[in-house]
């Protein structure tokens, strides 16, 4: 199991479906809405897809089949997210994925440069040497 951020899920839904079939995934429920936003952007703003509903159906199938478990953040995750946000001056929507990875000890799959930076700094602060992120070009 991995923690998948929105950029990773969106890449899997829109470009490379194989990403989504490698591991079971967990993410805060925010990832569903951010991925929906990426699908909307590719249809409405970029014109790269003509109808996003098929991609939305694929996203819903991931959740329905439990390949992707969308978590409602509890008090502990909210607190850890806020601490990381304050410590690294990062928006909570980025910090929540890092906080979930740190709390669970799961690998974080992301194409987000800021999340990788937060994870690397937090890992170093905690005295770990392992970096848990996907090395690929940031698409933001």
The tally of structural domains comes to 2
Give the strand content: 5-15%
Sheet/helix structural class: alpha/beta
Number of helices: 6
Mean pLDDT equals 91
Q: Based on CA inertia axes, which overall geometry fits?
A: globular
Lateral arrangement of strands in the main beta sheet: 3-2-1-4
Largest sheet: 4 strands, parallel
Report the radius of gyration as a whole number of Å. Answer: 15 Å
What is the number of E strands? Answer: 4
Distance between the termini: 25 Å
Assembly type of the chains comes to: single chain
* Unreliable spans: 129-133, 135-140
Structure write-up:
By secondary structure, the chain is α/β, with parallel strands linked by helices. It folds into 2 domains: 2-71, no CATH class; 75-125, no CATH class. It is 55% helix and 10% strand. The chain has 6 helices and 4 strands. It has a 4-stranded parallel sheet, sandwiched between helices. β1 (2-4), α1 and β2 form a beta-alpha-beta unit. α4 crosses α5 and α5 (92-104) crosses α6. The longest helix is centred in the N-terminal third of the chain and has 16 residues, at 30-45. The model is unreliable at 129-133 and 135-140 (pLDDT under 50).
């Amino acid at each position: 199991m991995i923690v998948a951020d929105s950029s990773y899920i969106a890449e899997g839904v829109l470009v490379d479906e194989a990403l989504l079939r490698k591991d079971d995934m967990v993410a805060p429920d925010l990832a569903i809405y951010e991925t929906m936003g990426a699908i909307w952007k590719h249809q409405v703003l970029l014109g790269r897809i003509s109808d996003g509903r098929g991609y939305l159906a694929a996203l819903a199938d991931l959740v329905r089949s439990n390949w992707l478990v969308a978590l409602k953040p509890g008090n502990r995750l909210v607190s850890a997210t806020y601490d990381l946000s304050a410590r690294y001056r990062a928006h909570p929507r980025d910090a929540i994925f890092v906080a979930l990875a740190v709390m669970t000890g799961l690998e974080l799959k992301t194409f987000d440069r800021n999340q990788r930076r937060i994870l690397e700094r937090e890992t170093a602060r905690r005295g770990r040497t392992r970096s848990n992120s996907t090395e690929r070009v940031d698409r933001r």
